[in-house]
Amino acid sequence: MAYFRNNTVNLLNLHYGIHSIAFSGTGAFYIVYLLKAGVPVEGTFGALALIVMGRFIIRPIVVPLCVRFGVRALLITGTLLSACQYPLVARVHGLGWPLLELCFVSSLGDAIYWSCYHAYFARLGDTEDRGSQIGIREAIAAIVGIASPVAASAALVAFGPAIAFGATAFVVAAAAVPILFTPDMRVAREAPGSFRAARTGMLVFMADGWVVAGYFFAWQIGLFISLGESFLAYGGALAVAAFVGAIGGMLLGRHIDAGGGMRAVWLAFSSFFFVAAFRAIALGHPAIAVVANAVGSLQSCLYVPTIMTAVYNAAKRSPCTLRFHALSEGGWDVGCASGCLIVALLTWLGVPLSVSILTSFLGAAISFGVVRRYYLEHPGLVPDSSLIDLEAAPAHPPPAE
């Protein structure tokens, strides 16, 4: 399979796979642990909004630092800073200074990491195999996610949060190792037209940030409460969902690369609206909620490759992929912070979380419009020599076709 020939993408997917051990392990308990630690639901959403607003404020430093040191160095730095946030989770006990400290460190690490990671993947990946490369990445994350949440829930119960979250920090730090063997990516000091080129990414990411607030964060908390706030039951539900997601991980990516982008858009977004409604109905019913969570994992295998193929290819066409993703991630911060504040307000007013999940419909509708237009303009994803950026080309020649 040709899309395995890009060794840089293989290393990036290995990095992502290691990182996913933390994402799907103790990292998946990040939000629900705050509830156990005495932070009320509306306070948890307020903390999430504070984290993403902090990312928005910090993000402008990323481009100048990458110009000076290169993207690879900042990606490694962002990975290590992201690791630092996990031990701080165990120190949180209700509202107070430890929670604010966690918000600041999370903002710093995530602002640097995600801008650099997306830019790296967009620049060094292959346009013609983009959907498959993303599908492989998501399949790896899904496979890792089968065992990780079970192990994480057992660790939290048996050893406590300090050891469980400390181990997660070690795993995240280890994810930096594969990046050491990838080519560096230099960034030009000036890149005229970057803002205009990033409009598609900004709109998609802003809409996705709003979606995440309701469809993902509100659902995580609602699922945890539906399962009696049991770490073991919650971990088991996540493992079941990961198993379902692993089954369909790479299928839609290949479909997109074969020129099926428009069909992928309709399938991804129609399934999104169905699953979001299903999740809203399932809250309070443990067995149904586990099924809704599993179906949602399969839906993400449709949704993520569809939107990210469009975003990564638009980034590679832009004057600067790093600036493209820094601006796009800024859009995500605005959308997610707004969504989290709305959910926090609704929760404070006594509105059920099922209604908060349905607020994601607005973001999905906007994302559908933008992504649909992209695939109408690019009905078949094919190699395009104009996408080659000699300034940031890898030090070694590209793999032979």
Topology:
Layout: H1 7-24, H2 30-36, H3 41-58, H4 62-69, H5 71-89, H6 97-124, H7 130-159, H8 161-174, H9 194-197, H10 199-226, H11 231-247, H12 251-257, H13 261-282, H14 286-317, H15 321-348, H16 353-358, H17 360-377
Q: What is the N-to-C order of secondary-structure elements (H for helix, E for strand)?
A: HHHHHHHHHHHHHHHHH
CATH superfamily: MFS general substrate transporter like domains
Give unreliable regions as ranges: 381-401
Q: What's the helical proportion of residues?
A: over 70%
* Overall strand count: 0
Q: Given this structure, which CATH class is correct?
A: Mainly Alpha
Query: N- to C-terminal separation?
Result: 10 Å
Could you say which structural class the secondary elements and strand pairing correspond to? Answer: mainly alpha
Number of helices: 17
| Tally of separate domains | 1
